[in-house]
Amino acid sequence: MMNEATDPPRRVLLISAGASHSVALLSGNVVCSWGRGEDGQLGHGDTDDRLLPTKVSALEGQDIVAITCGADHTVAHSVSGKGVYSWGWGDFGRLGHGDHSDLLIPHPITALHGLKVKQIACGDSHCLALTTEGEVLSWGRNQNGQLGLGTANDSLVPQKVQEFQGVAIKMVAAGAEHSAAITEDGVLYGWGWGRYGNLGLGDRNDRSIPERVTVDGEKMIMVACGWRHTICVSCSGAVYTTGWSKYGQLGHGDFEDCLVPCRIQALNKMFISQVSGGWRHTMALTSNGLLFGWGWNKFGQVGVGHNFDCCCPMQVKFPQEQKVSEVACGWRHTMAVTQSGNLYSWGRGANGQLGHGETIDRNCPMIIEALSFDGSFGQNMESSSNEYPSSGKGPFPLSEKYAVVPDENVRKKSINSGMEERVEVEVEANVPQYAHLNT
Which residues form the RCC1-like domain (predicted)? Predict the structure, then answer.
C-alpha cells in the first residue's frame, strides 16, 4: 500500500480501458490496473479480478511512459530498460512474443527491443507499433488483413508494414478487426475488416494493405477506432465518423451505417481535442474541457444519467462542473480524468472495471477515490505480489478457449460467464468466427 507520509503526491497521467479491465499511469512511474483478470491482463501474476486500483509491481523502475489496453491484454511502453512490455491473453500472437501463450505479468517484446517506439495501438486481437521514425509494425490476428501485411496470416511477432515505407506516419489506431493511421501530412489510411464501411473507403470490402481515405478535403490530425467504427478529427477540430451505427455510435442523429467519413454536425461549433471509441459507443473531448458521448448505452457507458442509446452527442456532466483533460472508452465502460486531478468512471462494473470497490453499473460519472485528489489518492491502492510464476498460464488449444460459431449469416447469443447479460456475437458469412467463452 502506498505510504501517504513518504510517497510524493501523485496524479493520473494516462488512462486506458479494455473489454472489462482498466489501467492508469501515475506520476512517479506507477502503473496500476483493476477489473477483470481472468486472462492475466492486469499483470499481477494471477487471474483474479481486482475491484480497486492495484499497483503493477513488475513494472516498478521501468520508466513507463504509455499504457494501452487491448480487449483482454495490455501493453506498456518504457523509455528505458527493455522497451515494450505486454501481458494477458496471448491467442493469435497478440502479445508479440512468438507464441500463443498467456502471460500473467509484463514481459518485454524482444522484436521491439532497441526500437524507438512512439505509440502503441491495441485492437481486439492485434496490435500496432509506431516508431519515432514514422514506421509502423503490426502483430497478432490477421484474418481480415488488419495487420496491413498484404496477407490474411496471423503474425506472432511484430512485422513492418511495407506499404508505409517512405511514408511518415503520425498516429495509428486499432479496432476489433480493422486499423487506421494518419500521416504527418494529414492523410487518413484504413485497412482490415470493412463490412460496415468502417474503413471509410466507400464500400464494405476488406483490405489487406493500407489504403488512402479521402475525408471531405480536410487534413486529419487524430484517429481512433471503436469496435467496428472509426473516428477522426481534422485540423479544424471537426469530427468525422464512418462505419457501423446500429446503436447510434456514429453520432449523426440516426442509426444508419456510413461507408465514408461524415462530419458530426452537432459538434460543428466545437474544437475537438481527443476522441475515443468503445465497443458500440464514442466519446469526444473539446479543447475547453467539455465531454460528449453517444452510442450504445445499455450499461450507462455514455454517462448521461440514463440507459437509453444516444444517436447524437450528449454532454457528460461532472460534479462542480469540472472540466475534463482525458477520456478513454472500454468496451462497456468509460473513464475520464478531470483538470482538477480526479479520475471518474461509469458504465459496466461487473468485474470491478470501474474501480469503485464494487461490481455495480453506473450511468453517470463516479469518482475513483483511490486515484483522485478529491478522494483518498493512493491510500487504498494495494500492490500486487512480488512472487510471480516464471511464465504465464501456457498455451491453450483453441477448442478450450473458444466456442466455434457456425459459418452462417445469423446472429447468435452466447452466455458470458460471470455476467448476467447475454452478449451478441456478430457472425459474418464465409468468415470463420470464434467466440471467447468468457466475453
Answer: 116-371
